Amino acid sequence: MIYRSKAPLRLGLGGGGTDVAPYSDIYGGAILNATINMYAYATIVERNDNKIIIHAVDKNERLEYKSVEELPIDGNLDLLKGIYNYVVRNHTHKPLSFELTTRVDAPPGSGLGTSSTLVVAILGAFAEWLKLPFGEYDMAKVAYDIERVDLAMAGGKQDQYAATFGGVNFMEFYADDKVIVNPLRIRSEYLNELAYNLVLYYTETSRLSSKIIESQSENVVNKDSKSIDAMHKLKEQAKQMKEALLIGNVDAIGQILDFGWQHKKRMAKGITNPLIDDIYSTAIEAGASGGKISGAGGGGFMIFYCPDNSRDRVINALKKFGGDAKRYEFTNIGLSSWSL
C-alpha cells in the first residue's frame, strides 16, 4: 500500500510573530493568514525487510536505518525522524518498516511555513497509514509539540494550524497552548482581487528563522518596551486585516501591510537588512502601496500589494535584484491524505 498526503503553505497577512511565546502567553496573540496552492508532500510505502528509508527529494538527502523504535536526532533530517519517534512512542509502541519520501514546493527558510507544513504532511501520511485518531486541532497540536517541544526548534504556532485547517483564518493564541482558529468567509471576488494584486516575490535568499525568533522571545522576557509595543501593533494589524477582507476594502490592504512592516522591523534584530530595504523601497516607487517580508524575516519571500494595475510595473522593477515573482492562488483546503 501507498499512503500520501499534502498540506498547503501559507501567506502571513497580519500579526506575524504574536503567536510566539512568551508574548502569546502573556498578552495573547492574533494572526491572519491564508493558504496557497504550494504544498509539502509526503509518501509512505510499507516495507517488509525491517528497514526504514527516509528520502527528502528536494534536499537530495537519503538515509537508511534498521527498523528500530527510535531514530537518532543528529542534525540529519531530524524533522522526519522526530515524527517517526513520536508515532512509535505514543501510538504503535513497536518499530515500523517503511520508506518515507518528502518534498516541498518552496525551499527551507523561505518564510512560507515550510518546516511546520512538512511536519503536518508527514503526520497526515502516518495517520492515513495507521488510522491515528487525529482531529484538526489534534493534528496541529501534535505537529507543534514535535517541532517545538520534542525537537526544541524555536518558532510560533500559526504554521501548523494553517497547514492543517487551510483557507483564510483569523487565529488567536493564549497561554497553556490554547489556540482558536476562526475561519473567515471571504467573498470570492475579494479573494480574487487580493490574489491578483498581491505579488509574491522570492528574494532568492533564505534565513535561519530560529535566531530571529529567539531574539524576539528574549526581548519579551527582558521587557523591551520597544519590541513589545511593536508586537501589540502587529496584533492590531491582524484585526485591521480581518475587517478589510470581510467588508471588501481590499485596496486598504497595502496600507495595512505597510503599517505592520514598519512595526515588525522593531520587534528584533535581523528582521530586515539593506537588501530587503532596497527591494521594499523599489516596489513602493514602482506603485506598490505596501508589503512585508514573509515569515520571521531576514530573507525568503516578500509580498507586495500592487493596486491600479501596478503589479507588472512592480515585478519588472524588481527584476534587477535577480529574484522571482511566483504565481499562486489561494486555497481553502488544508491537509489532505489518501491511500492506494
Your description of this structure?
The chain has 340 residues and is an alpha+beta fold. The chain has two domains: 184 residues, 2-Layer Sandwich (Ribosomal Protein S5, domain 2), CATH 3.30.230; 139 residues, Alpha-Beta Plaits. 41% of the residues lie in helices and 24% in strands. The protein has eleven helices and twelve strands. The strands form two sheets. Strands 1, 2, 3, 4, 5, 6, 7 and 12 form an eight-stranded mixed beta sheet that branches. Strands 9-10-8-11 form a four-stranded antiparallel beta sheet. The longest helix has 23 residues. The radius of gyration is 20 Å and the shape is globular.
Please tag this protein with its features:
340 residues, alpha+beta, Ribosomal Protein S5, domain 2, Alpha-Beta Plaits, 2 domains, 8-stranded mixed sheet, 4-stranded antiparallel sheet, 11 helices, globular
